[in-house]
């Protein structure tokens, strides 16, 4: 980032953070709950700019508090009065206020939550059952694209759509290998790994992070060199909020052609969808790395009848022309029936629109408008497939989908390609060689007043039963799960390694999880940065486990 960001009084705050008495320790003894006025007084004592404080810090008595909290709650099931909200919301515009907020939260016994885009599936970036301060980074969203060096510095509050847009304003031959949802904030996204339509060509988003500006628990602002390689390893896929505060990532941009080819093709059971998907599982993970083909699977009624079927949407993106794609598919997967008539050559930025369900002709500025992008209202679970699901297994899954009331679906991304080149310990994200598919299972509550209505609860029970049904067909020992699709149903215990391993090994596998715990003990030994399913700190040394 620009050198001007280095001019904040870092040393002053580091000194304060290092030697301040922990109010959390005192309050736990005295059973005192911190009040927002303590935090505000602390902030005021380090700032003479009261106008700035009023513009960027909000408590529940402020008219802007609730709208500021609500605007980036991307899973709308949390938009209800019973959801625990922050004691204080801070919307920093510079690193100094981040440092001051960290200091004051520690001093007065608050936990800290960091929100970049608000896509935390369990709402952990903006809700908690303890007094907490929420740092909302959406005002720190600058993006600096360096075409000559194929890099970009991106602040934590920037959303993926804005990153893609900024790149497209400079060049059509570079892009970044991340997801297709435009409103996802980069701060937390890279910290969980991150995947998208270029994963088979270039790996995960975190594989393409090359530097960072990062604030540790003592308020030090670090980069890759000053934090060291182990620390840098941990924050790229290990759940970055367990270790500190991301201020900005430096990204490696990857080459793409000026035009890519996209297509969408739907097949139902009556059109041979089962056999096509069975072949898809083995062909697409092994095919040319320039091709990515996502599938979405729905149970739905046939027209206006009472009969149900399963529809599979095959969504392809090829890093090349139609004339090159068609011979490839005709050779490797002719049964799918992709023709030139359903293919379209577009810019990479337009392909993001298409994969978000918009026409390629939609204004690319749509990606900048967070309020124009539909929010979620759902419950999700994730899985990885390492052995092709047999035909009889697929039919069981299809029958389960047809039991649903059309609120459920599967979203499936093929792996292989570049993802298989990395060791599962290259970064904490471990889902590498041998993974054929990643599966996201979801039910939505869009037509319900909450996620606790009888209908919503029935849908959640259905999702759990689907999860159980799929057990024989997904990865084992551990049954892998994706940390960016966090799922508190997996467990939250963290009193000892045995408890934490129930969920931790599913996200990171044993070796990576143990390494993350060792790094956490070094960089945040008092476990200030904590929340459900964060990397734990144990009193027992890990080598004794």
Automatic annotation (TrEMBL):
Family matches, as InterPro entries: BBE, FAD-bd_PCMH, FAD-bd_PCMH-like_sf, FAD-bd_PCMH_sub1, FAD-bd_PCMH_sub2, Oxid_FAD_bind_N
Signal peptide residue numbers: 1-24
Single annotated GO MF: oxidoreductase activity
Sorted UniProt keywords: FAD, Flavoprotein, Glycoprotein, Signal
Gene3D superfamilies in alphabetical order: 3.30.465.10, 3.40.462.20, Uridine Diphospho-n-acetylenolpyruvylglucosamine Reductase, domain 2
Oxidoreductase recorded as keyword: no
Residue ranges annotated for the FAD-binding PCMH-type domain, each copy included: 82-256
Keyword Iron-sulfur in record: no
Cofactor: FAD
Membrane-traversing stretches: none
Family to which this protein belongs: Belongs to the oxygen-dependent FAD-linked oxidoreductase family.
Protein name, per record: FAD-binding PCMH-type domain-containing protein
Organism: Lactuca virosa
């Amino acid at each position: 980032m620009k050198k001007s960001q280095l001019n904040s009084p870092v040393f002053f705050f580091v000194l304060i953070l290092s030697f301040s008495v922990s109010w959390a320790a005192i309050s736990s003894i005295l059973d005192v709950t911190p009040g927002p006025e303590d935090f505000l007084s602390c902030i005021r004592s380090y700032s003479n700019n009261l106008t700035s404080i009023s513009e960027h810090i909000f408590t529940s008595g402020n008219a802007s508090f609730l709208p500021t909290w609500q605007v980036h709650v991307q899973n709308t099931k949390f938009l209800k009065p019973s959801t625990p909200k922050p004691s204080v919301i801070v919307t920093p515009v510079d690193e100094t206020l981040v440092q001051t907020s960290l200091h004051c939260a520690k001093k007065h016994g608050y936990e800290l939550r960091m929100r970049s885009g608000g896509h935390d599936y369990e709402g952990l970036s903006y809700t908690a059952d303890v007094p907490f301060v929420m740092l909302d980074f959406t005002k720190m969203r600058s993006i600096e694209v360096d075409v000559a060096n194929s890099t970009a510095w991106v602040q934590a509050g920037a959303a993926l759509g804005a990153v893609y847009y900024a790149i497209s304003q400079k060049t059509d031959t570079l892009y970044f290998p991340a997801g297709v949802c435009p409103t996802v904030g980069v701060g937390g996204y890279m910290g969980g790994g991150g995947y998208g339509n270029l994963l088979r060509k270039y790996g995960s988003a975190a594989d393409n992070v090359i530097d960072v500006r990062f604030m540790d628990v003592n308020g030090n602002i670090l980069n890759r060199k000053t934090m060291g390689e182990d620390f840098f390893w941990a924050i790229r896929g290990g759940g970055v909020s367990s270790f500190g505060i991301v201020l900005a990532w430096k990204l490696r941009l990857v080459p793409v052609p000026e035009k890519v080819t996209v297509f969408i093709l739907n097949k139902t059971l009556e059109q041979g969808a089962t056999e096509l998907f069975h072949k898809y599982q083995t062909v697409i993970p092994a095919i040319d790395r320039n091709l990515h083909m996502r599938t979405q699977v729905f149970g739905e009624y046939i027209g206006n009848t009472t009969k149900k079927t399963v529809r599979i949407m095959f969504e392809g993106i090829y890093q090349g022309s139609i004339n090159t794609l068609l011979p490839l598919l005709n050779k490797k997967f002719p049964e799918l029936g992709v023709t030139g008539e359903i293919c379209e050559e577009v810019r990479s930025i337009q392909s993001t629109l298409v994969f978000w369900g918009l026409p390629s002709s939609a204004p690319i500025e749509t990606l900048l408008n967070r309020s124009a992008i539909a929010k979620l209202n759902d419950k999700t679970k994730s899985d990885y497939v390492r052995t092709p699901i047999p035909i009889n297994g697929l039919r069981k899954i299809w029958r389960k989908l047809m039991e649903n009331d059309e609120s459920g679906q599967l979203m499936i991304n093929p792996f292989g390609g570049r993802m298989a080149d990395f060791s599962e310990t290259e970064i904490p994200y471990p889902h590498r060689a041998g993974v054929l598919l990643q599966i996201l299972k979801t039910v939505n509550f869009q037509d319900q007043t909450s996620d606790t209505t009888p209908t919503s609860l029935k849908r959640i029970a259905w999702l759990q039963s689907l999860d159980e049904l799929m057990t024989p067909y997904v990865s084992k020992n551990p049954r892998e799960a994706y940390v960016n699709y966090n799922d508190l149903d997996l467990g939250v215990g963290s009193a000892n390694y045995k408890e934490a391993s129930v969920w931790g090994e599913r996200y990171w596998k044993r070796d990576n999880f143990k390494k993350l715990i060792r790094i956490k003990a070094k960089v945040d030994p008092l476990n200030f940065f904590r929340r459900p399913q964060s990397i734990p700190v144990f009193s027992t040394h890990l080598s004794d486990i």
